[in-house]
C-alpha cells in the first residue's frame, strides 16, 4: 500500500488517496482506493502496451510512490506498471533479461521478493543472491561489440557498433554513436580526447553505427561510446567505452634486436610469420652440453615410485636447463591490458592453443623494452650487466601448452603475470619449441565454454639445421661421402633454408656470415658448433645469411 498517494485525476484536479495494489487469481492487476478501509473501491485494472487487459502471475510487488510505478516479479520477469493515473494503470515494460557483472544480458530468472527505495530495486535472486537494479534512468547495452578490433590496414573486423536501450520512458531522446581519438603528449601520455566521428542513430530502442568505410590510423588510440540525450543536463546517459584494439595482441621479436618495438608490431599486424627452432639439444647449467641437435641430456627423476634415470631432450624435462639454455627461448609480448579492462580475468577465460603439443611457456617480469634482458642481463651504471634475473630464469619451470589449449590463470604464476601486465606493463612471455609447428599460436578469450575472440601469431618452428646453410669439406680428397649422423658429417645444405627464408626470416642485408670451426673436429661436433653459433648470431641481431663449413 502507498498511504497518501498523490495524483492528478481526469478532471485535472489533484487528489490524494491511500492506494493499494492487488493481483487477483485471474491475473489482473488492480488499483484500489483504501482511504476508507470499510468501503474500499476498485479504481482500474491494468492494460498492456497494446491497450489490452494485462495478465500477470505475481510473486511479489512493490510500489514506488515518487515515480508512480509498480514493480512486479513474475516467474521469469520483472513487469513495470505506470500508476500515475490509478484509474488507468498501464504496463510499461516486461523485463526478461538484465545486465550481468560482465555487461552481457542475462535472463532474469526467479525473483521471489523485492523492495524499492529511491528508484533502486533490491531483489532476492535464488541463483545469485541479492541483485540491485536502477530502473529510473536510460540504460544502454552493447551487443557483441565490447571492443572494436582493427586489422593491419586500420579497418574494423566487425563493421557495426550495435546497442539496445532500456528505458521506462519511451520518449527518450536521440541516440548517437561517437568515436573519440585520444590526445597524447610528446611522451605518449594521454592528455585529453577529441571527437573523431559521430553517427546519429535516431530515437529507437535499438540501433547501430556502420563503420565499414572508416580507416583508423594504427598509431593512434580510439574508443567509441553510445550517448542518449546528449547535452541535456540530468538526462544524458553514456554507455561504457568501447576501446579500439589492434589485431596484433601477440608480438615476437621479429628482427631479434632483443626488444619489441613498433617495427615488430607492424609485422605482427600484417600477419608475418616468426621463425624459430626446436629446443632439442642438451644444454646444462652455464657451460655444459654439446649443442648437437637431436642430442639428449642425462636426466634423473625422483617420483613416488622411486628414482629413474634416462636421457631426454631439453624441452622434455619441464625446466629451463640453466643460463646456457635460454638462447633456445624466444620472447613474445602479450599486449592484453585493454582487453583485461573489458574482459576481466575474474570473469573471462584467456586460453593459448596451437592445436597440438608444440610449445612450452615461461612467465617473466620484463616489459617490451627489456624483452632480451634474459639473454644479456639488465643494464646497470657499472661495467657489467646485472645477471640476477637471467640466472633465476635459468632454473624456473617451463609450462607446456596442452594440445587442447591451456588457460593462462590455470598455469602456475598465470594470475600474477596478468596482474603485473595490468599494473606495470610487464607483459613478456618466453616460449620454447617442442615439435614441428607451421601455424598459429592462438589466444582465445571467452566465457569458458565459448571463445568468440581469437588472436593469432603465425609461427614456424623446426629443427635449427633447417635455418642455415652447410658445406661439408671433410674427406673430399680421401673420397669419403658424408653420412648423416656419422663422424663424416652431414650432407651439404646449400639451398635457401627451409625454415629461414633469406629475405623474410633474416630480413637479409645481402651479406653472408660463414663459420669455420677449428682443427680436429668431427662431423657431429661440427653440427653442435655451427648450430650454437647460428643461434647466438641470430639472437645478437645479425641480418647476414649464415653458413657453416666442416673441414676436419
Strand content: 35-45%
Supply the helix-strand structural class.
mainly beta
Number of strands: 37
Q: For the terminal residues, how far apart are their CA atoms?
A: 102 Å
The radius of gyration over CA amounts to 34 Å
Low-confidence spans: pLDDT under 50, at least 5 residues? none
Largest sheet: 6 strands, mixed
Number of helices: 7
- Average pLDDT taken over every residue: 86
Shape estimate: elongated
Helix content: 10-25%
How would you describe what is shown here?
By secondary structure, the protein is mainly beta. The strands form 10 sheets. Strands 15, 17, 18, 20, 21 and 22 form a 6-stranded mixed beta sheet that branches. The longest helix has 17 residues, at 523-539. The chain is elongated. The relative contact order is 0.08.
